[in-house]
Description:
This protein is of the alpha+beta class. The protein contains three helices and two strands, in the order H-E-H-H-E.
Amino acid sequence: MDYFNIEDWSFTLKNGKEVLEKKFNNIEMCEYIDSIEISDENVLVEWIFTSVVMQNLDKNQFKGLAEHFAKDKDEEGIIHIPKQIGCFISTKD
Length: 93
């Protein structure tokens, strides 16, 4: 699904330093390492369909999504989803 291709987004943690280097000399990225833990795969599917890019899609095309996520559960029945969160601190000399 191209909806999740973050390369197309204009500013991310992946490309932020390159974008900021056009205007700033000193750039520091501060990353906050975190994850979401979900035990009910149906809640995850419901959350996915609340996103703007998914709201107009036919949910019938995604039958089996909950079963797919259920396969990703660990031995304790938890799905671990990493989050990429951070900020840049930029200054000019």
